[in-house]
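User: For my dataset I need records formatted as: sequence, then structure tokens, nothing else. Please produce one.
Assistant:
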Amino acid sequence: MANLTQGSDAQDLFAFAVNYNNPIANDDKGKIVPLYNGNIAEIDWRTKTDNVLRRYGYRYDNLNRLKKAVYQKGSSSVQVTDSYNESMTYDKNGNIKSLQRTGEYDDAIYSMSIDNLTTPMTAVNRISS
């Protein structure tokens, strides 16, 4: 991803890149895989405030539903584990069944669960005809 300054231009406030088939990020299963079906493999961004590269790498299931988003801060070799990660599960109809998010601080030391949401399949939640 390009830096916030190019040539003699003034520094940009925000830089953003979308990667489909050339991802750099890693997650607990290894390298984020390139995608050739239109799904986003990863996104990168920088802000003028600290000029630190940040990245999300994405994993999908066989039905192209988002399963996991892995947050990474710094260079490609430095990963902040469990900060701002997300994971989802789905029911047979494609509805989100569970969603977990971690975060709180942009630091691996203080990472904590901020969302642990589930949707139990009960009679109240089902649409009856």
